[in-house]
Design brief:
Peroxisomal Thiolase, Chain A, domain 1, two-stranded antiparallel ribbon, 19% strand, alpha/beta, 33% helix
Length: 417
């Protein structure tokens, strides 16, 4: 089976890309950068970064979670024709897998190149979330849960991840004070990293755990409970944005480039959609299966990973994905974040140098493509934001999750030359 490499990448600015006219109801909004604008910007940027012309692209995949509910648009793949007229008549496909929508798009494109069907493929992940009001946004995301038992019964995603957090705390005997300290360190690291990332949604979040812990529990400017034990600063934001990558065979990449970053391993594992069917909620069991698959295909272990972009839609998710990757022992990641591990100065492995979903932002359909784009840039020694200070990274990992630990997508990226 031939290997596939990334040869170009682009990430738009992430943020709330709307103007709010009614500061009381927050319902009167105007679009500053549309879903269509974001998709086209990311696609053009990735093609240019690859040093290709649009006519060289054989096919396009678009990852997007719920454009029909967020922007009243289905049938989104053909929007990519707007990137360049030469893409007209090319095959285009949209994938959906909740927050892992664009990781799955990358996998489908990879399989198509491995099969010999296409030479160069463009993959774009995109989501525009801020045009709808909060209740509509919450309900839209809840449709990515098991509706009969979860979303349809009033469960939000903070509530679902709170169930994972409660199971984790019970399993490892963490007190509320210990948990709050660990979560604050995780979030503060994200804020510090994002402050160095010009594309991040949050540029000025509280930079220390002490600052987060000092916030009041209620009122304006507080760190209020959202779904116990998760608080406001444990949660990612509602973000607009897009990211894209261009893929080709590794043989083709090596023939034309001095630096090549290949997709060395893929792990894609699904769990039960209903949380009620999973007995061990303190661990991402399907996540560990995905990690094992990706590591085996790449021929690596946790000690070989130089940096990782992990799914931190909530602070508990960052802790659990860090452990599932084997970067920390089970039950120990939170304490190791408190100890100062996983920073840009860590001589073993750096985590979420971009600021992660927590602070870079989480436009759900774009998140997987963004992770791949940013790790690719790190391995090309063209980092967007922070870079590891102790060594030049050679192996990077993305761990993208769809739903409440349901769809687990793990990719090993490696400098091939």
């Amino acid at each position: 089976m031939s290997k596939v490499s990334i040869v170009g990448a682009y990430n738009t600015k992430f943020g709330s890309l709307v103007d709010v006219k009614d500061m009381i109801s927050f319902k009167k909004k105007t679009d500053r950068q549309s879903f269509y604008d974001l998709l086209i910007e990311a696609g053009r940027g990735a093609i240019a970064d690859a040093g290709l012309d649009a006519k060289d692209i054989d096919a396009v995949w678009i990852g997007s979670c719920s454009p029909s509910r967020f922007v009243n648009q289905e049938h989104v793949a053909p929007i990519a024709v707007g990137i360049d007229p030469s893409l007209r008549f090319k095959p285009m496909t949209r994938t959906e897998c909740a927050c892992a929508s664009s990781s799955v798009a990358i996998y489908d494109a990879t399989y198509a190149i491995e099969a010999g069907r296409f030479d160069n493929v463009l993959v774009v992940g995109v989501e525009k979330m801020n045009l709808v009001d909060t209740s509509s946004m919450t309900q839209t995301l809840a449709t990515c849960s098991y509706w009969p038992e979860e979303g349809g019964k009033g469960y939000t995603f903070p509530a679902l991840f709170a169930e994972l957090a409660k199971a984790y705390l019970a399993r490892y005997g963490l007190s509320e004070a210990e948990w709050r300290n660990q979560a604050a360190h995780v979030s503060a690291l994200s804020y510090r990293n994002a402050a160095k990332n010009p594309l991040a949604h949050v540029q000025n979040g509280p930079a220390t755990a002490e600052a987060i812990l000092a916030l009041p529990d209620a009122g304006r400017g507080s760190n209020m409970i959202i779904a116990a034990p998760l608080r406001l600063h444990d949660c990612s934001l509602v973000t607009d944005g897009a990211a894209a990558v261009v893929l080709t065979s590794t043989a083709n990449a090596k023939a034309n480039r001095k630096k090549v970053v290949e997709i060395a391993g893929i792990g894609h594992a699904e769990d039960y959609l209903p949380l009620s069917k999973r007995e061990n909620k303190h661990v991402l069991e399907a996540g560990k299966v995905a990690v094992a698959k990706a590591y085996k295909e790449a021929g690596i272990g946790p000690r070989d990973v130089d940096l990782a972009e992990v799914h931190d839609c909530f602070s508990i998710a960052q802790i659990m994905t860090t452990e599932a990757l084997g970067l920390s022992d089970d039950g120990r990641a939170g304490a190791e974040y408190v100890d100062g591990r996983f920073t840009a100065d860590d001589d073993r492995v750096c985590v979420n140098l971009s600021g992660g979903l927590k602070a870079k932002g989480h436009p759900v359909g774009a998140t997987g493509a963004s992770m791949h784009a940013l790790v690719y840039k790190q391995l090309m020694e063209e980092p967007i934001g922070l870079a590891p200070t102790k060594k030049t990274p050679r192996v990077g990992v993305t761990f993208n999750v769809g739903g409440s630990g349901v769809s687990n997508c793990v990719t090993v990226l490696r400098r091939a030359q």
